[in-house]
Write a structure and sequence with these properties.
About 35% of the residues are buried. The protein is about 60% helix and about 10% strand. It is globular, with a radius of gyration of 18 Å. It has about 240 residues and is of the alpha+beta class.
Length: about 240
């Protein structure tokens, strides 16, 4: 069982089922498995929901992917999320998906194998560009997803807003670290620290994150989006102005 005492037994059991499915399909090709995302962070109020396991494998095929979907179907219907990358894909991701790989490296719980991030090099310039890309994209992507949800009835405004808030939290964490500043573990304190650096009021987004963690949803995604636009715009301009 994972060494993650902040997770309830049910969540840990779900994670174990995922690792068992991965071992069943990949055998010796399973190089590593780790908890990533919310479940890897003791500070996250939603840490027990939908745990995500990242698997690094030596190789995979369409047949392997289909077999994993069948083997892990029950666990995934119960809330588990599985993500599979080959070693080559992970090695080639650090200069393109730099923020995502950095987040995995900094916040994960190893479940099986050797730490896959020991061999990953994160270039400071690549991370800075990835931070800027994320800061520029959060508001635009959320706006377009909400338009699509309202216009077509497909998708979820709740999920779109939740994803945008998660990306903003990650942006705040890694930007402060890139700057050599302290990145508080508690989300409200983290966003407030980032807001002070960016010279933008974080009170609205701190309130929304607290509401999301407490209720699991937000009543009006459009109203919530409107309330955090000033913060997202300020974050974008501040990150854009960072030195290379």
């Amino acid at each position: 069982m994972a060494n993650a005492p902040w997770l309830p037994k049910r969540t840990l059991a779900l994670v174990d089922r995922g690792v068992e499915a991965l071992r069943s399909v990949y055998g010796d090709r399973l190089q590593a498995a780790a908890i990533v995302g919310a479940a890897a962070s003791p500070a996250r109020h939603d840490r027990a929901r939908a745990p995500q396991v990242l698997a690094i494998v030596a190789s995979t095929s369409v047949a392997d992917a289909r077999s994993l979907a069948e083997t892990a179907a029950k666990a995934m219907r119960d809330g588990l999320r599985l993500r599979v990358l080959t070693e080559a894909e992970l090695a080639g991701s650090s200069d393109v998906f730099t923020l995502e790989v950095t987040e995995w490296r900094d916040r994960h719980v190893l479940l099986a194998g050797e730490n896959p991030f020991d061999a990953v090099t994160i270039d400071a310039a690549d991370l800075r560009r990835s931070l800027e890309q994320s800061a520029r994209g959060i508001s635009r992507q959320l706006r377009n997803r909400l338009i699509s949800v309202d216009a077509t009835g497909r998708g979820s405004g709740q999920e779109a807003l939740s994803a945008a808030l998660e990306r903003t939290i990650e942006l705040a964490h890694h930007t402060l670290l890139w700057l050599g500043k302290e990145a508080p573990g508690e989300e409200g304190a983290l966003l407030e620290a980032f807001g002070r650096w960016a010279e933008v009021d974080a009170s609205a987004i701190v309130k929304l994150v607290a509401e999301l963690r407490g209720k699991g949803r937000l009543d009006d995604p459009w109203k919530a989006f409107e309330s955090i636009v000033p913060f997202l715009d300020g974050a974008k301009h501040a990150v854009d102005g960072m030195g290379a």
